[in-house]
């Protein structure tokens, strides 16, 4: 019933900024072929650091610096892919998603040591909507979420909490599967450059949240007043580049509300 202080100090990790590569072309075309592009006819377009492949069915964006990617299949115009789907056992689902990322050479070691979460959806073709379902038997689509490994026994969360921004969205058939959407946005952390910084007390973090200094991750009901039911200490793994991997206080409320407050004492934080 009261805010709690997790620890007096915690680690902050430096994330080196990726740099442009001169030999990126062979890698991005290798990845494009794995996603089913005919690279003889479909060539990439370069927009800043993103190489973009696109045809009538699908689109792939690859960061030429570190090969982070986003892939999207146009299933709205191809609803027949949801016919005769099956949902295999969880172990097989995880293994297929892992194999897919390994085949792309984009399965970072730290993700391989972290938690994997499976989410079941039912896609309704006539409404073009995904509904979250509890039972595998009610699903026709599966999302496999990948998380960084815990840091000093504290969980690493995504701005997409409770899901991850590193994921593979798939549908399965007898003897095969199809990837509908996939993304890896991951920056390696430096184990050589680690700082230890003082952490806000739970009371101060709670005060910051009440004073509007937090960041709301999810508020499905758009309510102005929320009852907070849980407070945990975590690390935030962003889906865009920031120089540091830092701890946060995570607040979880009714109706799936979630928000975070930076945990490092404010005087040590540089706003960029």
Please describe what this structure looks like.
The chain is mostly beta strands. It is 14% helix and 35% strand. It has four helices and 16 strands. It has a nine-stranded antiparallel β-sheet with strand order 2-3-4-5-11-10-8-6-7, covered by helices on one side. Strand 3 and strand 4 form a beta hairpin. It is globular and about 55 Å long. It starts with 8 loop residues before the first strand and ends in a 10-residue tail after the last strand. The mean pLDDT is 93.
Strand order of the largest sheet: 2-3-4-5-11-10-8-6-7
Strand content: 35-45%
Poorly predicted tracts of residues: none
**Shape annotation:** globular
Q: Structural class of the secondary elements?
A: mainly beta
Number of strands: 16
Helix coverage percent of residues? 10-25%
Task: Using the CA coordinates, give the radius of gyration.
Answer: 20 Å
What is the terminal-to-terminal distance?
A: 35 Å
